[in-house]
Design brief:
Elements lengths: L1 H14 L4 H19 L3 E2 L7 E2 L5 H15 L5 H14 L3 H14 L16 H18 L14 E7 L2 E7 L5 H13 L9 E3 L3 E4 L36 E6 L5 E9 L11 E8 L1 H7 L16 E8 L5
Antiparallel strand pairs: 1-2, 3-4, 3-10, 4-9, 5-6, 6-8, 7-8, 7-9
């Protein structure tokens, strides 16, 4: 009789007579569902485009992951949740805690894929993460870490450039690089760029514009790229990268930003990151610029035929208005 009662209680605790394996699988599903609700991930609904969930604030993500850990404890989702937590702690600068989190994964889940080496001479993902934490801790003992301003586009204004072969539009990171953007707007409104031509182009990579020496068709071509206004600008670096469509101010010899010359990236140009201030982005006409980049050039990238700016406008509102 006692055995029958004990079996009945066990069945009740495990889910009203369901097999233990079924209960375990349900717990696994619940754990992974909870994890996916917390961390950014890809959503691919049937017959629809892939959508990436919005990345939450890192400090908020740390809190949510810490609250999640008891729910996923003992499931296959636990080491992954802890790995996400370690990465989030790293991003908010809690480096010692991040290192401890990764080390706990190494000790607590030695057979997990995160601890597997892809090759004998390569570290595992956990070993790599721990090394990153320790390296950053040592680095911060020597250097001051400065958070760069976050670059968001001003959607309510844009500069329109008309060329001999189509138009393109630029929106600005006005709050992240205010003096650079104010100077650029002033030049656009005054028509400074009208009559200038692209003084250097690299096929499908980047184009350079803004040298006043290109205004005169009779001017010696070797001086293209050497001219500018009588001022330069503060180096207002922000967190925007020199990727496709990025517009960045060229660096002057003084280490500040150039007063008028800028680069338009047609593809990723990582060599320009932290060297040129990205102050805007092409939001319309990137196809025009890619087509322009196919013009013939001389040995140093100067177009053989002038590609001139025929007009500029400063417009309010998003593209299309």
């Amino acid at each position: 009789m006692m055995i029958v009662q004990l079996l009945a209680v066990t069945a009740l605790l495990l889910g009203f007579g369901r097999p233990i394996e079924e209960v375990r699988l349900q717990d696994e599903d619940a754990a992974w569902t909870a994890l996916h609700e917390v961390v950014p991930h890809h959503i691919h609904a049937q017959r629809s485009r892939v959508r990436i969930t919005e990345t939450p604030d890192m400090a908020a993500l740390v809190k949510r992951l810490e609250e999640l850990l008891p729910q996923v404890a003992g499931t296959t989702a636990e080491p992954i949740a802890r790995f996400y937590l370690g990465n989030a702690l790293f991003k908010v600068g809690r480096l010692e805690e991040a290192a401890a989190t990764f080390e706990a994964i190494g000790k607590g889940f030695p057979d997990h894929g995160l601890n597997k080496k892809l090759a004998a001479e390569e570290p595992s993902m956990i070993e790599d993460a721990i090394a990153d934490c320790r390296g950053e801790i040592e680095l911060r003992k020597v250097y001051e870490i400065v958070d760069l301003p976050h670059a968001e586009l001003d959607r309510q204004a844009r500069a329109v450039f008309h060329t001999t072969d189509g138009s393109f539009e630029i929106q600005l990171h006005a709050t992240a690089s205010p003096e650079t953007c104010a100077n650029f707007r002033k030049l656009v409104e005054e028509g400074y760029y009208v009559g200038l031509c692209f003084h250097e182009i690299q096929s499908y990579r980047k184009l350079m514009l803004g040298c006043p020496n290109t205004r005169d068709e009779m001017k010696d071509r070797p001086t293209w790229g050497l001219g500018g206004p009588a001022w330069d600008l503060p180096f207002e670096l922000n967190d925007a990268m020199n990727g496709p469509g990025a517009v960045s101010m060229r660096r002057s010899a003084s280490g500040r930003s150039h007063g008028s010359q800028f680069t338009i990236c047609l593809s990723d140009q990582p060599d320009l990151n932290n060297k040129q201030v990205v102050f805007g982005r092409v939001v319309r006409g990137l196809d025009v610029l890619r087509r322009l980049s196919q013009n013939r050039v001389d040995a140093v990238g100067r177009p053989e035929d002038r590609i001139a700016i025929t007009g500029t406008e400063w417009k309010a509102g998003p593209p299309g208005r």
